Hints:
Elements: H1 13-23, E1 28-30, H2 32-45, E2 50-55, H3 67-78, E3 82-87, H4 109-123, E4 132-136, H5 138-141, H6 145-153, H7 158-161, H8 165-172, H9 179-195, E5 199-203, H10 207-219, E6 226-230, H11 256-264, H12 268-278, H13 283-294, H14 299-314, H15 317-332, E7 341-344, E8 349-350, H16 351-357, H17 364-372, E9 376-378, E10 381-382, E11 389-390, E12 393-399, E13 403-409
Function: Catalyzes the attachment of tyrosine to tRNA(Tyr) in a two-step reaction: tyrosine is first activated by ATP to form Tyr-AMP and then transferred to the acceptor end of tRNA(Tyr).
Subcellular location: Cytoplasm
Family: Belongs to the class-I aminoacyl-tRNA synthetase family. TyrS type 2 subfamily.
Amino acid sequence: MTPKSVTSANLSEGVGQALEVSLRGADELLPQDEWIRKLQRSEATGQPLRIKLGLDPTAPDIHIGHTVVLNKMRQLQDIGHTVIFLIGDFTTTIGDPSGRNSTRPPLTREQIEANAQTYYRQASMVLDPDKTEIRYNSEWSDPLGARGMIQLAAKYTVARMMERDDFSKRFKTGQSISVHEFLYPLMQGYDSVALKSDLELGGTDQKFNLLVGRHLQQEYGQEPQCILTMPLLEGLDGIEKMSKSKNNYIGISEDAPTMFAKVLSISDVLMWRWYTLLSFKSLAEIAALKAEVEAGRNPKDAKVALAKEITARFHSTAAADAAEQDFNNRSKGGVPDDIPERTVSGAPIGVAQLLKLAGLVESNGEGNRMIDGGGVRVDSTVISDKGLKLPAGNYVLQVGKRKFARVQLS
Length: 410
């Protein structure tokens, strides 16, 4: 579902702007008319709305795919609303079943605490920490106890729970569903009750859980929250959602040169989607830039601008400038002007296999031997890790002193 554009002439300038900010890049805003009423009430009373995002600390690092919802939080924060960054230290002990075809193993308390230590520090690279309310859902979940958990479970039916796609599919195919998995959406929904949230954000895979929050708020006599789902960001390959397991990600703690180079490796088509979801430029600025490219400007100029913006956000402007210079030096240094060009598919792919497909070695074994001997360079950098896999992008490969190929890997 594509969000409706703002056309109502009855909205004030402030509410119209807030709605535009809300809808930018979003998948769904539900119910939109309720959100407009909340915005109008906020404008009339001067009371900021409470906007919630929950993340479970299932891993120690955040990649830029996670920042799509953080960017939206920052945009809403910048127009005056209260954002709540909720760390799901309690819900992580259950394990989110979203998108799973099997029971997700819960993490230990030690693993959760170790991961949670880095989450807010990383999120603060996007959010304004001085204007962010940070909470942990163990604060109200632990005190519930067995009696409270049973009372909460009584407020939602099994039939409604089985409407959830992943539960329904697993049930139909005879795959196990543990009872504790039903508790996850209930506990996430109860977070909205505890925080009295007006809007909850999440990826498209979280829609069911967000709707449970609306239901439970009504059960507890609260005005129900609206929900805003953001699309899952495609990774460097432009196909699969960004994921560490698919090696198509950019970690926000990666060094500046690596981050810059990875952004430059994405396709010209994917670049515009990343602009919408990741850039802090206005939609008008992005549209003007796209028009320039369509009129003949080199799309690489736009991609460099995006790479510098993202790199500067997680490092600094100086680091982004240095990363650009480093990339230019590596891509040009010592490489002949006239070298063969190859197009190879199958990313991510091992370096030795890529050398073979590019015609620079006869076999993977020869490629690995050349790596062991320090004779392989990718973009002028000596490769020493035979297990390295390269994501989609453009690379200059060098074997020895005289063999070169410019490879477009997809």
